[in-house]
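Moderator note: this is an archived Q&A kept for reference. The question asked for a predicted structure of one protein chain; the sequence and the answer are reproduced below.
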Amino acid sequence: MSDREGSRFGWFLAGLGLGAVVGVLYAPRSGSETREALRARAEEGRDYVRNRARDARDQASEWVDRGREAVNQQKDQFRAAYEAGRQAYQEATAESGTPKNL
């Protein structure tokens, strides 16, 4: 029984060695080429993330500018309405003869 186990283990080691040799012979790239390819892909990923962050920052800036513009427009409309109301009040109190301070 031990002969059988020994031969199985031997065949396992032989297959492992043969697989390693075949893997090295048929590898698409050398180790340095593989590392360079990985490095290049990592740089592409970093550039992609930077570009997306820049796009997001630009879009957020655009939204902030739109918000400011809307707030300023609302302030101008409120100011115009306030002045119109104040003018109407002054005209109404001037006609009735009882001036009142605002």
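Archived answer notes: Helices lie at 2-25, 31-96.
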